[in-house]
Amino acid sequence: MPSYEDLRSLACPASHMFEVVMDIEAYPDFLPWVAEARVLTRSEHDLTAELVADFKGLRQPFKTVDRFVQDKLVEVRLLEGPFHFLESVWSFEERGADACRVHFSIEFEFKSMMLGLVASPIFGHACKTMAHVFEERAMQLYRKEAS
Asked: Which domain holds residue 138?
């Protein structure tokens, strides 16, 4: 089963990075493989979301349940979609007023062998760049906020 893990130190508060990860409806603005994203339900510590992944023209909708602890943790698990298994975890550790450490991990497996052959390389690349793309988004927004 493909998996990826990343640990980064960032020059922004953990709360800011948490907000970027939780802003699911903005994903199509900065994640190239996400064509659509919307939050279906939200409560104090979890939400359900529906995303449409675009694997080079092959659009695949999927739903997740995201459990979270404000500014500390986001756990994402598959509810339904083209995956047999999909789970990712973001954790955020404050490292001072304007710094944090972010840990990201993801594991996935497609249901269909054919879809896996087509989409796994694309999704695998997306996973390897995920933390970097979120970091870029956070820094872009954080710089605007600080100005």
From this structure: 3-146
